[in-house]
Design the sequence.
């Protein structure tokens, strides 16, 4: 192998290591935050989000952090030790994640109307179960209160949606900034689905750029791992030629 190929191989190895070290560190931070929220959920005060929502968010962060941490660690160790098996496993995992993201994006886009209607139906169904007192932990009540408090919205499409769910005089307190004087005139006037839909439409290009950026980084990692593994195989063959 000539010196140019060696320099290129070492440069790619360093770039791959740095890239995955960033992912490994980010995964560790996400995992740490998720574990902290999960452990301290009962001690968190001054937050408007329900404990069920915090628990769900914590589990999501822990899962995401574990995936990013493991993938980043494989990339770091594979590039640092120049281990072909680790690089192959890293390439395979990133490829699976990349293909999964594409499949999910296609499925959501192809069924966007169905997904949209499903979200509205589930929210409406939870509104019907909001005052359910038969169970000690009303998940629907906690979820709706969290959404309405965080997004400053009320109902599905409009505030008066609550009149159809046994709230003729006033909506739930989570619909109002001042919960001590909550009524239909002081409540948030925008429906939650309207707020979410408006946010997505106004920020669609930024969301698209973010998804495209993640996809490009994944493609870069896959390409670098593939090149580095090929370089290591050629180098090993060159240094240890086959002899009869």
Sequence:
């Amino acid at each position: 192998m000539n010196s140019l190929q060696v320099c290129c191989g070492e440069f790619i190895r360093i770039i791959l290591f740095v890239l995955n070290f960033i992912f490994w560190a980010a995964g560790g931070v996400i995992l740490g935050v998720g574990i902290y929220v999960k452990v301290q959920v009962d001690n968190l005060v001054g937050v408007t989000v329900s404990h069920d929502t915090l628990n769900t968010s914590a589990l999501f962060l822990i899962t995401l952090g574990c995936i990013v941490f493991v993938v980043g660690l494989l990339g770091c160790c594979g590039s640092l030790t120049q281990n072909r098996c680790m690089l192959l496993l890293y390439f395979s995992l990133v490829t699976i994640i990349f293909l999964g993201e594409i499949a999910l994006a296609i499925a959501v886009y192809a069924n966007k109307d169905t997904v949209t209607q499903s979200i509205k139906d589930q929210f409406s169904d939870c509104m019907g179960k909001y005052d359910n007192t038969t169970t000690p932990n009303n998940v629907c009540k906690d979820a709706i209160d969290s959404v309405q408090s965080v997004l400053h919205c009320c109902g599905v499409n409009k505030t008066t949606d609550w009149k159809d769910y046994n709230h003729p005089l006033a909506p739930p307190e989570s619909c109002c900034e001042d919960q001590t004087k909550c009524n239909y005139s002081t409540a948030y006037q925008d429906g939650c689905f309207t707020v979410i839909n408006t946010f997505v439409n106004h920020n669609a290009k930024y969301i698209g750029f973010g998804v495209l950026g993640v996809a490009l980084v994944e493609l870069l990692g896959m390409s670098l791992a593939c090149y580095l593994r090929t370089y290591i195989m050629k180098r090993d063959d060159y240094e240890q030629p086959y002899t009869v």
In short: DSSP finds seven helices and no strands in the chain. The first helix runs from residue 3 to 40. The mean pLDDT is 84.
